[in-house]
Amino acid sequence: MRQQAYMAETENGSAEDPRSGSRFRALRDRWRDDPGIWRRGIVLAGLAVLLGLLMILHAQIPNKIGNLGSLTETFLPWLGLFVPVLLVLALVRRSATALIALLVPAIVWLNLFGGLVTDKSGDGGSLTVATHNVNAENTDPEGTARQVAASGADVVALEELTADAVPAYEKALATQYPHHSVQGTVGLWSKYPMSDTRPVDIQLGWVRAMRSTVATPAGDVAVFVAHLPSVRVKMNAGFTASQRDTSADALGEAIARDRVGRTVLLGDLNGTMNDRSLNAVSSQMRSTQGAAGDGFGFSWPASFPMARIDQILVKGVEPVSSWTLPRTASDHLPIAARVKL
Hints:
The protein folds into two domains: about 35-115, no CATH class; about 125-340, Deoxyribonuclease I, Chain A. The chain contains twelve helices and 16 strands. The protein has helices spanning about 1-5, 20-30, 40-55, 70-75, 80-95, 95-100, 105-115, 140-150, 165-175, 240-255, 280, 290; strands at about 10, 15, 125-135, 155-160, 180-185, 185-190, 195-200, 210-215, 220-225, 230-235, 240, 265-270, 285, 310-315, 320-325, 335-340. The strands form four sheets. The chain has a six-stranded mixed sheet with strand order 5-6-4-3-16-15. It has a six-stranded mixed sheet with strand order 7-8-9-12-14-13. A two-stranded antiparallel sheet has the order 1-2. This is Endonuclease/exonuclease/phosphatase family protein.
């Protein structure tokens, strides 16, 4: 009798708890019999559609006012967080209209970024590269260098080097990387011979970019290292990035002119792959993270990564895997990738 009080026999003889089923049926009936289910939540439905349109048409947001378009594109994946917020509000309001409208931003976000959620990394490859903005105020340059070298990278690029700290990085990396060059505030360390190493003019007035031909066992690779100017958010000017954009155009031209067919770009580009202002570079190269990464690979700020402004881009080679490395004493996370030449 006690069991009968709590359990009911279904048609096929299995037992089920009638309480959970009755709660579901009561909720279903309340929504079905509610005459306002389609009229409520019109504002929420409108916000959902606007969110979807914002993600679809992000390239149409003008940059004339505070570079608003680039700012939106920098943090574009985070717009997806508004979907669950609107979902909760739609459920609270018991609005079928809002729930259906939410399909728009949900589908758009999955179309734009769903591929980044999964792990696309593969096995094999013939060259491992790593890059790290070490931060000019880094208090542990030797420790930072050792941590990056622990990735097993064949080629390591460092940005934001200071004259005082360079000897420490050189000392820490000397054993594993017999070939290296520092040009201005960027440097390249390699296990393989380097030639035709020179600074790259990115219209700054001082050196923050370089290139070198690395003679790997699988053939020559042109390796570019760049640290594009920082973007700023100012009260009177909004998101300012004019110098970054000029430097990106100059870097793109230098890469396009290079005679070596296989090219790798390592560095802090101060912009994501969604940022239209990097088109001069991104239009001719592939992101290793986008092609073969595990997740979004956010690299900045290191304390709570929200954007991938540190990049590994390739042309003429096949990305195999891409990942972020453990945090160092810098405000950026180092990143690495393995490619097939």
